[in-house]
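Q: I'm writing up a methods section and want to include an example of the input and output format. Could you take the sequence below and give the corresponding predicted structure tokens, formatted cleanly so I can copy it straight into the document?
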Amino acid sequence: MPAAVPLIAVAAAGVASAAVGGGIIGAVVGAGAAFIVSAIGQSVFPQKQKKQASLSPQAAAIAGFDAGQPGAGRTQAFRQPVTEHQLVLGRCKVSGPIVFLHSATDDEGRADGYFYSVVVLAAHRVRAIGEVFLGDKVESDGSLAGLVRIDRHLGDPDQAADANLIAETAGQWTVEHRGRGRAYVAVRLKLTAEAFPAGPPNIAAIVEGADTILDPRTGAVGWSDNPALLLAWYLTAPFGWRAAWADIDIPALMAAANVCDELVGTRAGIYERRYTANGVLSLAEGKIAITRKLAAAMAGALVVSGGRFFIHAGAPALPAATLTSDDLRGDVTIQGARPRRDLFNGVRAVYVEPAANWQPTDAPPLLASNYVAQDGGEMIYRDLEFPLTTSVATVQRLMKVELERNRRQRTVAFPANLSALRLRPWEAATVALDRLTPFPARVTAWSLAAEGGVDLTLEEEDAAVWDWNPAVDERATGSNPAVVLPNPGVIAAPASITVETPQATAFAVLSLSWAAVGSSHLAGYQVEFVPASVAAWQGYGGSLGATAAAIPTAEPTGFRVRAVARSGAVSGWRQALVPAAVAAPTATGIAGGIRLAGGFPPDAVRLQVFEASSSSLAAAVKLPEEPTILFWDRAGLSAGDTRWYWLRAVSAEGNVSALAGPVTATAL
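A: Here is the clean output for your methods example:
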């Protein structure tokens, strides 16, 4: 359902289709004899549409939008043998077609350890490719350090091929693969089970889109999210209507651009521009649908009249004429109220929310109690979607405009004489007929009559349609409950790991245990250990399915454990590393004891102290007290007692360091 605006066109009699290219104006408007079609695409450009209740031209533009269609807001990469390119407007999160996949041996000698992917983001040059998302992680995530390389190409007409792909893909990507005029990212991933448990992730990026937008107000060419300027750009683009700039009415375009740039207050106390367009459009949607969406983003219209394009943004319009009985050539028909099936008193809408990962999000619903009362207490909602709107304040203004337009219910079929030639579609006029209070209206249909004269259709519309008081009209954004779905590709790490601290100077085994992972996807655990005398981690297979293990070892040893899901995904490691040993221990005799000193290891929480009356470690006995600082005094000795000491650090997980010592002293 494209956003609320009509597209009104003037078409030559007998024309059934539009030419593509520079002849578009001649195909749509011929020989100066014009006929009008409201909601462009019904008569001149017939399309198959679902049957629905009769709508106003404004509502019809909304009702035709289908969020499931291409370009409705794509953030997922995809592969297809043949697919259309896409346009990126303003600033948005976007993915696109994957045009190249490759794997190679990585720097550790692992076959297929490197994964290469090229994703085309836009069919044109863009201003910037910002942060890249790899699944639910951004490229700067610490867990991806050293595993990701991203080359950005903005789509310059003369851009060179990606040098890294040429060098690393064994001739699969060559100097001829330049992607000229196509913005893309070339990504190389070093695949690891920890960083990418479900395999290569979806690739998307924050893109600042087309930057060849001409602003006739300044003559500058660059980036813009102004919908009026973007529509003019699309009308003249080689992948758009291919119209000439001479075919566009520049004063009307400048006025529409100024309306879009007007500052409007918001509930948050800040100002934003009245209309912006930020999103993705697929060329598969067709020219009419793309044009509708761009016009919809500014609650405006595109008019083709007298051989020229007139771009209008939604705003109050000054009457261009006053229509009186002197302008009539026949009987006027006034419909005082819309059919019940066409009325609504509330609006629900979906827009794209950047803070929600650029996903379609429900806007706060609008329900007008005064209109509900007029409709006998029945709440009647119209559901709308705004795929190029990324502001919750803007979408609410658009919702209010559509509701207020619908409630101005008078429609006039006005058979005018040739004096009505001074009016164009979308212009405002005052209807001032005998025995009728004058009221403002907008021209929504215009056609030459066979017997001479002009047949007009006017719909009531006053300036109050566009009124906006953010303190009253803008509703607070509620926090919609998030739906949490099971993800078999993600599993949590054990919350803790504990080593059973040995109590003797020598040991033959170290026992460890870890917290169970509460997941229905759990398949078991992987345990690895690394003795102090060994450089590499070693696997231990006996603990899968259990939450404890006994590792044969006679020296300080580090341990780590992780959870494994049934899908093959793994969690991060939970570690119990070997703490550092006490640095430079010393022993000094003091009155009635011996003082031990040295460097307390930063990764230790306490020390074990082993004491002997000779320099024999085998005879040493652990003292009951475990100091947490150094120095520490061994009390309870008699003058002349000589003792030897060995100190061992203990980590928070209970793991132990190497013994430091012996040191010896005599009590005073």
